[in-house]
């Protein structure tokens, strides 16, 4: 057993509460689904889950803790993350309306949003600190499994629940946004809308105070 069953109800309750709090991941996934449809939202959700798995592995191996204890490393992550998001914002905003993809040809855009979701989360220092501070709280000394193994199991459970929640969000927002995707005026400005979303995420990261 790699998760203490006595702590599991508290852990699950805490994870659900955290998932319901609006954050940058929710904004990116919801706006992707609204602007480009459910397929793109699904890819963005899997991109977020991929970055979560990477952060879980880094936390289990202790790498995240080493980075989190280094103020210069955290500051570098913050600047790189903000700069990356600003570049994505600029790429979207400068796109012409004719660049807005047809609904039936979204595969390349979906893969692009997958990569952007992965990178935006990995370059967010607060996401890294979250895994360092959150998972160890539920590591039990009553189990024979090492702390790294327990953190891996807890992180995998967190990511599975997060992916399920995000896919439900995509289904809901995608359904609400379907009429917009059939609106030519909206489709002409959908890239601009996503550019504003990436700009907001960049400001969120650059303006945040990261403490190790």
Automatic annotation (TrEMBL):
Q: Where is the chain membrane-spanning?
A: 53-77, 121-139, 151-173, 193-210
Q: Which UniProt keywords apply?
A: Cell membrane, Membrane, Transmembrane, Transmembrane helix
* One term under GO cellular component: plasma membrane
The record's Pfam families line, in alphabetical order, gives: LysE
Source species, domain of life: Bacteria
Q: What are this entry's molecular-function GO terms?
A: amino acid transmembrane transporter activity
Membrane-related topology note: Multi-pass membrane protein
Q: Which protein, by its recorded name, is this? A: LysE family translocator
What species is given as this protein's source? Answer: Shewanella algicola
């Amino acid at each position: 057993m790699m998760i203490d069953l006595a702590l599991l109800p508290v852990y699950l309750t805490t994870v659900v509460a955290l998932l319901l709090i609006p954050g940058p991941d929710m904004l990116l996934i919801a706006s992707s689904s609204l602007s480009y449809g459910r397929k793109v939202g699904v890819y963005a959700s899997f991109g977020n889950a991929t970055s979560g798995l990477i952060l879980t592995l880094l936390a289990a191996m202790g790498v995240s803790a080493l980075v989190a204890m280094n103020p210069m490393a955290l500051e570098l992550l913050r600047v790189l993350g903000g700069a990356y998001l600003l570049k994505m914002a600029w790429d979207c905003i400068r796109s012409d309306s004719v660049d807005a993809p047809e609904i039936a040809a979204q595969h390349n855009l979906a893969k692009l949003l997958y990569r952007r979701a992965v990178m935006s989360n990995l370059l967010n220092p607060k996401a890294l600190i979250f895994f360092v501070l959150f998972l160890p709280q539920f590591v039990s000394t009553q189990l024979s499994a090492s702390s790294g193994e327990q953190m891996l199991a807890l992180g995998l459970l967190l990511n599975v629940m997060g992916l399920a929640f995000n896919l439900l969000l995509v289904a809901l927002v995608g359904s609400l946004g379907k009429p917009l995707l059939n609106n030519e005026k909206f489709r002409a400005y959908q890239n601009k809308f996503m550019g504003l979303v990436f700009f907001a995420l960049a400001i969120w990261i650059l303006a945040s105070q990261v403490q190790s």
